[in-house]
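Lab notebook, page 48
Experiment: co-folding of the full assembly
Goal: obtain a model of how the components sit together before planning crosslinking
Operator: M.T.
Materials (sequences as entered):
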Amino acid sequence: MTQGQYVAAAYGAVFVFVLVYVVIIAAKLARLQRETAELLELARSRERLDRLPHYAAPVRGSREGATGTE
Amino acid sequence: MGLALVLALIVVAEDQDQGVSQRIFYIHVPIALTAYFCFGLGAWKALLLLWHGEERYDLESYVAIHQGTIFGALTLITGSIWAKASWGHWWLWSEDQLVLFLVLFLFYCAYFMLRFSLEEGSRRARSSAVYALFGVVLIPVSFLAIRLAENLIHPTVFTREGPQMSGSMFATFCIAWAAVTLLAYVLYRVELAGKRLDADLRELREVLQ
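Observation: model returned without errors.
Model output:
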């Protein structure tokens, strides 16, 4: 290897390390974004349930989602 | 970072002694100094954790040491390439500076083994903090080893008489150092924000479910 190739290898190694790090962080941020969206959806569905009139709210744990009017 | 790369690879004059391989200096030394700084920061945050008992310092200490390990690995890789180009060897066990840096690096690698072998909680935070504080002793030893070593194959650039290089070389080194420090700071903030967000989401999930 020539001296120039060693220099390129050293700078290239740093570049690859930083690139891999950025890709890992980006993947993690994508996962966090997905989890945030899931939790938001969960919170919204909870809110919709809370807004329903009490008699129409499904009983938790019931398979048919009993309305409470029966 | 772009400016530092242009200056280091194109603008600054070649070293008369080492030739083109000396250009590795502008990336190797700033990365090594940043690794020392990150380990020092991790130890400082660990001290704050033990002093104040605030939980946030645990995560800050962990992220700083994680950054230090990444920059430490880069120091070993770039140093090894430079050694091969200059001395004809990838590694010399007889060089105290190299061996001491490797010891420091492995010491902080073991930090992760300790941390992940314990259950999450205050015990883990305190044990990790004490370990991080022990490691800080190795930083000045490793840093000063080059000056204490008898056989000086590893070059000593910064002496009591000032930097042993031309003005343009020193300016390039300072810009490269600033760029690497900025990069480390940005990575530190991003990783810390990600970890905090992760913890908050986990807590929120527990509340909602």
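Interpretation: Confidence is low (pLDDT under 50) at residues 64-70 of chain A.
Next step: discuss with group before ordering constructs.
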